[in-house]
Amino acid sequence: MRKKIVAGNWKMNHDLSETESFLGDFKKQLFPEDVSIMIAPSFTHLFHAFQSLKEHPVQVVAQNMHEEDSGAYTGEVSGKMLKSVGVSTVILGHSERRTIFGESHEVLKKKVDAALKNEMNVIFCVGESLEDRKNTNQEEVVKKQLEASIFHLDSSLMEHIIIAYEPIWAIGTGETATPEQAQEMHRFIRNTIREKYSDAIADSIQILYGGSVKPDNAKTIFSQEDVDGGLIGGASLKVESFMQIVNAASHKKE
Ligand code: PGA
Predict the structure, then answer these.
(1) Looking at the whole model, is its pTM more than 0.90?
(2) Domains of the chain
């Protein structure tokens, strides 16, 4: 059985004192054992969060990284640097990186390779725009994203990949994909991976849903057969709402 993952993507939110107050409260929570919990603070707080959560079953994840290990890339942070501060998972291909920062399929492919080379796991985001969905191109778009930046990988590396399906029209908009829409796309992604790789890889890869997951809709979304948890933006910024979503992913709380 695939373990559920709930990952909080803080984006560019929480300064140091807000991060400290989150962590102080977060550490007091009872974490369900059947859910892998991750938080992705800004680069500036990664080391602090890692130190603070060392004794707790929470992974600290980065929101991005550069594809080179070092060099003249002003303002960038490498996978090697992330590894050195205790980060072993990175989110790549988030739609905000693709659309606002112009990250192409090719750049993302290099970033994926660099993360794996640094022995990190990757949460690779895919998802269509509203226009794509209106034109019923969503499957084509998502397939292309996988093919262009992930499908060059040898099957032995696929155990380090987690997919996050995040329809752009549902991110930060309060609008969620219906549980049926999420299930349909997750099944499509799993089957696309099955065709490219194998049953074993398709059946074990974790596919998260992201896009306005909130405490009141998390349970229904997470109960879909091919949904293995969520990548949570807005609702991960407060301990209370994040923990409600974490608990919604746990079977023990049913
Ligand atoms: P949201 O963001 O939960 O605020 O919609 C999700 C994401 O972008 O990862």
Answers:
(1) yes
(2) 4-253 (3.20.20.70)
